[in-house]
Amino acid sequence: MSTITCDVAVIGAGIIGTATARYLSARGAEVAVIDRSYMGSGSTGRCIGGLRHQFSTPPSIRLMKESIRIFSGLEREFGHSVEFHQGGYLLLAHDDAMADTFKSNIKVQQSEGINVSLLNPGEIQALVPDLNTEGLVAGAWCPDDGQAFPFAVLKGFRALTEKSGGQFLLHNPVEEIRQHNGFELLLHDGTRVEAPKVLLSAGPWTREMALPLGLDLPLAPERHEAMITERMPRFLDPMLVDYRSDGCYFQQMLTGQVIACYTPVPNVPGIREDASIEFLPNLAWRMTRLVPALRNAAVLRHWAGCYTMTPDGNPILDQTPIDGLYVASGMCGHGFMFGPAMGRHMADFILDGEWGMDFSEFALDRDFSPGVETLK
Amino acid sequence: MTDRVVICRCEDITEREILEAIRAGASSMEELKRVLRVGMGACQGRTCGPLIRCLLARELDLPVDSIREWTRRPPIKPVPAGTFIQGDES
After folding, report:
1. CB-based contact B78 A300, cutoff 8 Å
2. Average pLDDT of chain A, as a whole number
3. Which chain B residue's Cα is nearest to A274?
4. pTM
5. How open is the CA angle A64-A347-A13, to the nearest 5 degrees?
6. Per-residue pLDDT tens digits for B46-84
7. Contact A273, A304 (CB under 8 A)
């Protein structure tokens, strides 16, 4: 069986692995991206494609500023559309405590140069005429937030990676990672990949890949579900996020479909992609409570995917105690939006050994006491 | 000719687009669905699914039976959101 030698082996062809590979190869590194299935088959391809600046701490906000700047240029870079659109994110607070959280976040976001403001219910109604504003206290509004289509983004990053000589080894799970003069990865079909450096960006599978190497990463996958409607004429521009415990979030895609999720309480732990029986009735009720006109929207499909959670809601982006082994996982549902900028920074870190930005909040040896990121 | 044969009528995808995606490396129904959105429209692939399966089999030179069908996703047929709600309150 064949042996492939490269500078960096990337495990996981989701957005994090693929974007990192693109920036590694752009700097002349030889990369091989390995995935157990097709590109985006893990979390990336199951996400709903939202992009937002509205986070609660500077590292995430800065990362998103850079990511959205990259997203906005991808069509030109790739030569094909990625369905990027800045329709904004409108976060909704139905109690004073959440409104206060928005207020303190907005201060941080504004000091980072983000165009975000607190709206009263009247202003919200003017922005989204179809919204039921009953019980609404305030909204946080950033018109520069938006959306993109994950598969088009993956396709573009892959093409650029391959153009610079990178390889994609898909439908070929890594069976074993051996440490021996660097790393030797044994793939399912018998191919061996030899590399001095390895990036674990396998989303929900990252923890179990690191365990045989003696690393117990604080990563906990959980199931999240989503649904999509038929295409409809565009009537809703922003992503609406209802932060009530029985809330939901949804947006209308550029192509007309409304795509929606809610965060289950309590959470549903495990690597699970099964669809629950209660999701559609719950979601239909939550969504139509917010936008009653959606009552007539035809639901086409319902699916599930994993968030990979960390105890504090921030990702893990770091080298590990094992020389040459890096980890980028624990995106807590934000991998697609973080991806482009995170890929660029991860690539620089792997090649230069230092961060271009202060990422100590994402370090592996940080204090993981819960409660840092308030905008889950 | 293939650019005039529409395989997925809901998403308006032609035979040529499907053949190009297969030649670009897509080797399964799931990949084609995600890259081209075939089977993601109102009929949920009931019309184009069998045709795409045959195209894949032909292009990859495999028996049709060996090409795995799409995962079937609820609710199978388009259902208005309001139908899922009993009465006006949950």
Report:
1. yes
2. 96
3. B73
4. 0.96
5. 80
6. 999 999 999 999 999 999 999 999 998 999 899 999 999
7. yes
